[in-house]
Amino acid sequence: MDFRLTAEQVMFRDQVARWARDRLAEGALARAHEPGFPFDVARSAAEAGLTGIAMAEADGGQGGALMDAILAIEAVAAVCPRSADVIQATNFGPIRTLAEYATPEQKARFLAPLLRGETAIGLGMSEPGAGSAVTELATTATEDGDGWRLNGAKVFTSNSPEASVFLIYCRFGPGTGNIGSVLLERGQEGFSLGKPARYMNGEEWCPLFFDNARIPPENLLLGPGGFKRQIAGFNAERIGNAARALALGRHAFEIARQHAQDRHQFGRPLCEFQGIQWSFAEMHARLEAAQLLLYRAAVEADDGLPDAQATAVAKLMCNRAGFEVADAAMQVLGGLGYGTDSLVEYIFRKTRGWMIAGGSTEMMKNRIAEGVFGRRFSQRPPRTEAPQ
Ligand SMILES: Cc1cc2nc3c(=O)[nH]c(=O)nc-3n(C[C@H](O)[C@H](O)[C@H](O)COP(=O)(O)OP(=O)(O)OC[C@H]3O[C@@H](n4cnc5c(N)ncnc54)[C@H](O)[C@@H]3O)c2cc1C
Q: Which CATH number covers residue 208?
């Protein structure tokens, strides 16, 4: 077992770090406070070859590995935390499910402009009545002789104010076996977006409403029976979520580390107080442990999509490490860390969200427990016998 990166990986990471320093260092704080998707960063990332890193060259990707895409997130987040979302959106999010399962025609229409950083895609999975219990989703796709009609509503879709296409989870009939997904374009008849709401991290999302929205046959992504494959694609999104949580935690750690050496109280730098040293020792150990779990999940996935169990372990530990380190880093910075002039404040708010998004930490623990005991535990109430 070799825990070191290869020479090519080190070279790639350094190359991304150089691009990030040149292109993203200036304006990193301002970007963190802008609610919209930074398309200028996305276009620049596309020019630098940082979109579709782990996607096939035939699809317009870079033909790299999932691990390379993680290294890119880390190098970008070290300079500009908000821009790490661009690496996520153009490598790990619904774009990845699209790259995996779309037809060549769909790839030409939707994937190509996404990889050029010109458009954004939203994922419509969560509904008002179906959050963690995603298989309870109630959005229906009903055949109408020339495709489908979509009815229902979605909430919490990231990048929905800007997305030009949405990957919508829907059901073609009752039961989990009838869940699939369609591609819905902005402006499509019967599709409307509600008033934007704002998350604690500053990003905005709009509710999506489908009122007999037309889905032409060429916009079907995965028909009935597609749920398992969708979730397999979604595991890649979880890896990107985990990588950002960890990389942002590390960013906060570095700010705090510098501060602990520069700031003097009681006539000595903060780093000379043992209480502060132990806090850094804890932070460092947490980041390192989560990093290994993340890399393991990615390396084992290199021949395909990441394993659900390894992904759940990595996401749980990276989400926690990112947020807990951001919290501890804020403490080291004192009043400065709590203000909006500090990226640590942004990172604290941002990492908190990832313990909920993409499958909450509780849902990751449910998944891990199933792996531990080698059996499925239904979360639904036990069926009671009908009274005689
Ligand atoms: C920043 C952010 C971005 C998001 N982006 C998207 C997006 O792009 N697309 C999208 O579709 N959704 C998105 N979401 C929504 C996200 O997927 C849901 O918030 C998440 O799945 C939880 O669903 P819920 O909010 O309905 O909470 P609920 O499912 O109602 O859960 C509430 C609480 O109960 C816990 N809980 C529920 N069931 C169990 C159980 N069986 N065992 C133990 N605990 C349980 C949960 O962990 C949670 O703590 C985003 C959310 C956030 C915060």
A: 2.40.110.10
